[in-house]
Amino acid sequence: MNRLLLRLRTEEGFGLVELLISLVVLNVGILAIVAGFNGGSLALLRASETSTAAALGDKQVELYRAITYAAISLNTTAVDGTYTGDAAYPGTRVTGTCTAPVAAACIPTQTIDSSSTPPSPDGRSYRIDTYITTHTPPAWGTYSDGRPLKRVTVVVRRSSPLKTLFRVSSNFDQSTG
Questions:
Q1: 119 secondary structure, DSSP code
Q2: Three-state DSSP class for 144?
Q3: How far apart, in whole angstroms, are the C-alpha atoms of residue 111 and residue 154?
Q4: From residue 14, how far is each of 20, 31, 47, 109 by CA, in Å?
């Protein structure tokens, strides 16, 4: 019995050390879980922005699909460095007096946010840049017979900080009316 008491006395405080080590291990595990939740919420935010940008870009391209070839143009207005710095800007641009029935099809740069009509679906601010260029592809293959094409490129960016979220291009030829 004395041996047992002697042995217990020599291990005094060992339970406290075990408890502290287990608390540290538990805290590391909890912090890893919290970091995972934070990463997941950021991924959901990015996915939400990207899907909203895709919907806005597709909606803008659909405006051009609803009008005739001759009506596809942009009003000549002043544009900024972000607009002119895009890869879709160079080329033979189609500008002039836009005759599209929907005014949004005539504006090269527009901002959609919660105060717009209609508002942004998620309440965030997006910048929609539209580029229209012309080119005549070679008359070979099954796609083109040498007629001039108008290429409409829509780029949707997050307004602040500026980041490209979605880009879509579509070609239109004179057979669209």
A1: P
A2: coil
A3: 13
A4: 10, 26, 50, 70
Could you tell me the end-to-end alpha-carbon distance of the chain, in angstroms, rounded to an integer?
105
Buried b (16+ CB within 10 A) or exposed e, 106-133: bbbbeebeeeeeeebeeebebbbbbbbb
Contacts of 119 (CB under 8 A, 6+ apart): 112, 113
Q: Can you read off the two tokens belonging to residue 146?
A: 């040498």
Task: Summarize pLDDT for 100-115 with one digit per residue, the tens.
Answer: 888 888 889 999 888 8
Stated pTM of the model: 0.76
Is the torsion defined by CA of 36, 38, 40, 42 positive or negative?
Answer: negative
